[in-house]
């Protein structure tokens, strides 16, 4: 139970701090340069949670990461669904908090500003968005599985994971707003409009595809000597 609570809390912090950089921090109004602030917010949140709750739950903070870890043979099946439920719950609570902060406040943008999508900016067709989200998740999960393998693990593992997430955000923010995390997408979408809900499927499916491939590759090739 402690691990599930840790995942809920860690995902809450990730989504709250990351999305607040858009809604309350105002970086969403400063694109493309503001993308650096958003990327750093998500990356630093992951680093903080990696060290804060990592010893308790592994700090997955992401259903796709949990899927990849399971497929790599690093966690039991019985924990997969509870981890994912806890992560989504944390993300929804964070989005609800940001939604509440925005009500009646001119200083806080609506949570929909932090939702993922591919049509809003008119920059990317759906196949491109799907491919990039899947590829970004594949890279992210592969890095996680690599730096947390027994023979590779160091005190800097959490830092490496966070910096990787920053790099992925810098690449994908102009295209999709960057998800690579179904929970991060579900939370804001539930408090946004029809467009965000209609596009949510991609930000669930693509990360799971990328993470699934990463988990299988890690188990069969990259991590075979760990």
TrEMBL record:
<dbReference type="InterPro" id="IPR023271">
    <property type="entry name" value="Aquaporin-like"/>
</dbReference>
<dbReference type="GO" id="GO:0016020">
    <property type="term" value="C:membrane"/>
</dbReference>
<dbReference type="InterPro" id="IPR034294">
    <property type="entry name" value="Aquaporin_transptr"/>
</dbReference>
<feature type="transmembrane region" description="Helical">
    <location>
        <begin position="34"/>
        <end position="53"/>
    </location>
</feature>
<comment type="similarity">
    <text>Belongs to the MIP/aquaporin (TC 1.A.8) family.</text>
</comment>
<keyword id="KW-0813">Transport</keyword>
<keyword id="KW-1133">Transmembrane helix</keyword>
<feature type="transmembrane region" description="Helical">
    <location>
        <begin position="200"/>
        <end position="218"/>
    </location>
</feature>
<keyword id="KW-0812">Transmembrane</keyword>
<dbReference type="InterPro" id="IPR000425">
    <property type="entry name" value="MIP"/>
</dbReference>
<dbReference type="GO" id="GO:0015267">
    <property type="term" value="F:channel activity"/>
</dbReference>
<feature type="transmembrane region" description="Helical">
    <location>
        <begin position="159"/>
        <end position="180"/>
    </location>
</feature>
<feature type="transmembrane region" description="Helical">
    <location>
        <begin position="80"/>
        <end position="102"/>
    </location>
</feature>
<dbReference type="Pfam" id="PF00230">
    <property type="entry name" value="MIP"/>
</dbReference>
<feature type="transmembrane region" description="Helical">
    <location>
        <begin position="128"/>
        <end position="147"/>
    </location>
</feature>
<keyword id="KW-0472">Membrane</keyword>
<protein>
    <submittedName>
        <fullName>Aquaporin Z</fullName>
    </submittedName>
</protein>
């Amino acid at each position: 139970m402690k691990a599930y609570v840790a995942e809920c809390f860690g995902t809450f912090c990730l989504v709250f701090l990351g999305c607040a950089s858009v809604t309350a921090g105002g970086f969403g109004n400063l694109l493309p340069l503001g993308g650096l602030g958003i990327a750093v917010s998500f990356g630093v949140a992951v680093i903080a949670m990696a060290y804060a709750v990592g010893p308790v739950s592994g700090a997955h903070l992401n259903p796709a990461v949990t899927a990849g870890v399971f497929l790599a043979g690093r966690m039991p099946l019985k924990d997969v669904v509870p981890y994912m439920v806890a992560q989504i719950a944390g993300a929804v609570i964070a989005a609800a908090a940001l939604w509440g902060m925005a009500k009646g406040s001119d200083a806080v943008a609506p949570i929909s500003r932090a939702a993922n999508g591919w049509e809003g900016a008119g920059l990317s067709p759906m196949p491109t968005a799907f491919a990039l989200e899947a590829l970004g998740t594949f890279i992210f999960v592969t890095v996680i599985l690599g730096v947390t393998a027994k023979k590779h693990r160091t005190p800097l593992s959490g830092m490496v994971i966070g910096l990787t997430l920053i790099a992925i955000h810098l690449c994908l923010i102009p295209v999709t707003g960057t998800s690579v995390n179904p929970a991060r997408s579900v939370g804001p979408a539930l408090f946004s409009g029809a467009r965000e809900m209609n596009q949510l499927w991609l930000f669930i499916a693509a990360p799971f595809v990328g993470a699934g491939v990463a988990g299988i590759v890690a188990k069969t090739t990259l991590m075979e000597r760990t």
